[in-house]
Amino acid sequence: MWSWIDTVWSWITANATVFSGLTSVGMLLIWGIYLQLILHNFRMQRRPQIIINRGRGRDINSLCLISNMSQEAVFIETIFAQLETSRGSWFIDITDIVDEHAGRHDQQNQTGADTHSLSQMTHQGPLNKGQYMESGTFGLLIRRIAETNGLELNETCRPRPTDVELYSLSICLIAVFGNEKRPIGARRRFRLIDDEQGRLSLIPDEPGTRQLNSRRHRLEIRRWQQALL
């Protein structure tokens, strides 16, 4: 038995250099994986995450909520809504706030207004980590787009000409994230469908908000900016 142990020990001693090399390679692989995980987590934390969702219901009377779930603040530059209909696709800039009862916000006192009053007139500005903003009800946004394009709607947001159909409503935004030199974007599309009670409801096309942060998305954001000029 002792001779067998001596034989094994002699073999290990003779191949110590090989074992040392394998151990070094193994440690390098472990550290490499560990560093990759750290880098991946860092990149995930640095990625902007803007959420567009419904609040206080699921029909057109629900609020359009925009939340910043990024690790840093974002500067909201532009928000616009796009309505797809049987007559075509229409969109309007909804960055400025509209009073549902009084129309556009009264801007007579705009000169010399403080930060608080400015936030009551426009959605443009910084949105800190974990904060959210309301962009009005989806019904109001649909009415604004329809009115701008000469389409009359009844009290339930149904087109007066019954031959016109409303397909979907998309909320899109352009923002600046951290020290990024180029703008980023976010988009979410809601299909307009009648629910069991006959109310016009909003059904998201995707489970989450689509983040437009990659290089190939920059062309799309640039087209948005040119269309909104």
Q: What is the mean pLDDT?
A: 82
Rg over CA atoms:
28 Å
Shape: elongated
Structural class: alpha+beta
Q: What is the number of beta strands?
A: 12
Note poorly predicted spans: 101-113
Helix content: 25-40%
How many domains, as an integer?
Answer: 2
User: How would you name the oligomeric state of the polypeptide chains in this document?
Assistant: single chain
Strand content: 25-35%
Distance between the termini: 88 Å
Can you write the helix and strand succession as a string? HHEEEEEEHEEHEEEEH
- How many individual helices? 5
Describe the largest sheet. Answer: 7 strands, antiparallel
Summarize this entry quickly:
This protein has 2 domains: about 1-45; about 50-229, no CATH class. It has about 230 residues and is α+β, with helices and mostly antiparallel strands. Strands 3, 4, 7, 9, 10, 11 and 12 form a 7-stranded antiparallel β-sheet that branches. The protein has a 3-stranded antiparallel β-sheet with strand order 1-2-8.
Would you kindly provide a written description of the structure presented here, covering whatever features stand out?
- Helix content is 32%, strand content 32%.
- About 6% of the residues have low confidence.
- The radius of gyration is 28 Å and the shape is elongated.
- The protein contains five helices and twelve strands.
- The longest helix has 31 residues.
- The chain has 229 residues and is α+β, with helices and mostly antiparallel strands.
- It folds into two domains: 42 residues; 181 residues, no CATH class.
- Strand 1 and strand 2 form a beta hairpin.
- The strands form three sheets. Strands 3, 4, 7, 9, 10, 11 and 12 form a seven-stranded antiparallel β-sheet that branches. Strands 1-2-8 form a three-stranded antiparallel β-sheet. It has a two-stranded antiparallel ribbon with strand order 5-6.
